[in-house]
Amino acid sequence: MDSLIAASARALAAGDALGALKRVALRDDPPALALRGIAMAQLGDYPRSRELLKRAARAFGAHEELARARCVVAEAEVALAMRDFAGSPRALAAAAAVLEAHGDRGNAMQAHLIAARRLSLLGRLDEAATTLQSLAAAALTPALAAVADLCAAELALRSLRVAPARAALARAHAAASRARVPALLAEVERAREAFERPAARRIGAGGEHALRLDDVAALLDSDALVVDGCRRGVGVDGRWFPLARRPVLFALARALAAAWPGDVEREALIAGAFGFRDPDETHRARLRVEIGRLRALLRDVAQIEATPGGFALRPRGEHAVALLAPPIEGEQASLVALLSDGAPWSTSALALALNASQRTVQRALAELEADGRVRAWGHARARRWLAPPLAGFTTILLLPAALPPG
Fold first, then answer.
1. Which residues, at least 6 apart from 124, have a Cβ–Cβ distance to it below 8 Å?
2. Of 282, 309, 325, which closes a domain?
3. Which 8-state DSSP code applies to residue 402?
């Protein structure tokens, strides 16, 4: 390694991207291309960064597999920042294996962390946790330890394990302080702010109240029967009844919970569950069928009584009823939650994260763009979508594949 390459690498390690570029900006040899690519990533020019890193990987070729593997890992991290998930994860796994075989444990751990963060963004939380667990016994640098704990904190938050999330963020803050990387410290602080912002709403006959993450976790741990509008289900005493794939039953459960301890008129239930404002006898018959299905599902924890005006939810025992609603609602809530992280997302990446077709996502984005809630930049395959951060509350419970309580 010549002196200019070494000096540029030291500047990058210290976060001085411009200082690194000054030393290698006019060079096109593979090490210089790789350093230029990393510098451009630090400056936020991700498309140019990926182009330089790909050129460097090709230039290194098969005869310098260690350097080439490092370029693959760097490009994967840039792709993650761009929310581009089109690439195969096998290339990253192969690069990690090469790095471990050559004793480059630091970059190998970085590859595994990128894989875990990618899985987390795609909502594959169990796989992300397994990948992260494989690093538990590894000796990580302070910067890598901070990233690992940030990832662990996000996974804990999305499963509403508040105490482990706080502990992980405390470790991340300590590691970021040792690493002396301002960007890492800022990311830790942003994650900690999620605890102080409203995460959901509790709705009842007396109105609605904003709840922070601690309040949500306490409510789910209480003895209340909770109709959870964030994860679409009913929970009580550690039992969970998922209704995400049964929207009619969830709509009925939500309406009954919102009116508790009162009842809901049949016409209101029909309008909310089926969308008919002028019901006839066939709609009333369908309502009786669906109420019967909800009764059968919840028979061990609650009754649904017929009243002169409609139906009422009656929990067994002394349980209260609580309706937990997300801070924002609508068909595009999870889409808005993903976009509000401030990163540019491609349509294909959003479709992967939401487990939806690209056409469905495109229609939703068009509606949001017409309302001024998102904006696009770039064209064709380079098109990316952005949304302003949602001030005032956290969207952690709206993200795809949030784990059910318990």
1. 401
2. 325
3. P
Cα–Cα distance measured from residue 100 to residue 97, given in angstroms and rounded to the nearest whole number = 5
The pLDDT, as a whole number, for residue 330 is: 67
Distance CA 128, CA 72 (A): 20
Cα radius of gyration (the chain): 25
Q: What 3-state DSSP class applies to 261? A: coil
What is the pLDDT averaged over residues 107-124? 91
What integer pLDDT is reported at residue 187 of this predicted model?
87
Last residue of a domain, one of 307, 325, 343: 325
More confidently predicted of 395 and 110: 110
Residue 173 sits in the same domain as residue 47: yes
User: Prior bond to 261 cis, omega within 30?
Assistant: yes
Which two three-digit tokens encode residue 313?
């939810």
Please, what is the end-to-end C-alpha distance for the chain in angstroms? 54
Instruction: Verify that 352 and 242 share a domain, yes or no.
Output: no
Residues 91, 218 within the same domain: no
Mean pLDDT of 24-31: 89
pLDDT at position 137 over 90: no
The answer to whether 344 and 83 have CB atoms below 8 angstroms apart is yes
For the chain, what percentages of helix, strand and coil (3-state, to nearest 5) are there? 60, 15, 30
Mean pLDDT of the chain: 87
The amino acid sitting at 101 is A
H/E run at residue 205: none
